[in-house]
Structures are given as C-alpha cells and as structure tokens.
Fold this protein.
Amino acid sequence: MNQHKTIAVIGGTGKAGKYLVQQLLKNGYTVNALVRTPENFAPSHPALSIVKGDIQNIAAIQKILKGCNAVLSTLGQTQGEPLISALAATNILAVMKEYGIKRYIFVCGMNIDVPGDNKNAANIAKSDWMRNNFPAVVADKQRAYEIVAASVVDWTMVRVPMIVQSDEKNGVTNSLQDCPGESINTSDLADFLISQIDDKRYIRKSPFAAGA
C-alpha cells in the first residue's frame, strides 16, 4: 500500500487510463488526473482529484503535478486531432523540472524503435504498416521518445501491442528486444505501470509488455 504517494495521471479517461486510475486508488495511492471532459469521468473517490484541461495547458499540468511523486501517462492520439505526443513530452518534462519530480512512466505502441531492438519479422511488418499508414502519428511518438530519452528524469517507456479492455488478469511478459505477445489486457497493463513506480529495472529503458 502506498497511501503517502501521490501520482499524476495523464490520459485518465482513455481505455487504459480508466483502469490505471482505478487500480492506483485500490492500491492506496492518491491520484491527480488531468481530463478534458470531467463529466465523462466516472470514478469518484476521496483520494482522487480531477483537473479539467489538456496537455497544451501548462497551468493545468502544473496543477496536477504539484506535490506528486511520479507521473504516469496513457495518453493516446485521437484521430483527426492535432498531434500531441511530442508536445505532451515537452510540457510534462518542463513541469516535472519545475517541481523536482523524477519518475515518468508512459505508454506507447510497439512500433516505436529504440537502440537494442531485435524485432521478429512479424513485428517488423506491423511496425512498417503503422509507419506507412500513420506516418505523422508514428513520427510524433518517435520524437516524443527522443525528447524524453534526452532528459535527465527517471523515465520508462512501456511499449505495448493491442490493448484489450478487460478486468481479467493473466500477468505480463516483458522484453527489452521484442514484443512478446499479440495483446495486453487493461488490468494487466495498469498493474505493470504501477509496479514501475518503485521498480528500478527499467529506469531509462523501453520494455515491451504483453499479456502472459
């Protein structure tokens, strides 16, 4: 239990974010969540604070990060909206520096490449398909990784395959070289992200995480 830790969550209304917020609260954390539409955010809890705003609003980011021990982001790209990944990384890191926060954990797709990857042929093909069909989105997410990797914070980029919304827990398999599975349940992903708050194995690394 971690009643004395406060976690900022970016993307708390998304498919993965809702499970993350619920599991953090269940595990005894205090949660500050940045959401664009609070009226669509169902969870209500005495340890949950909701701030209306988006990742472009520095004042909103300052409000949810103040007093936090770590930042967790499950922010995704909404089709048809301006690219946000690189901007999010820049703004979050700026406020983390302002408040002296060191731990930053964020989620992205398995198609983002980092040094040391050794993807199999099938996963290379999937990554190539994403680049060919969504070049701007992939480039923006790749740039976000580069921005975070160049920072001084204790970051972890969790790369995942298809996210399946489910309460079922099957466990998580990890690798630093290739994605070890086809999908990951939202409940398992939430548990893995929370485990990384204090786990030092993947600091400044980019593990793949898939369902066991």
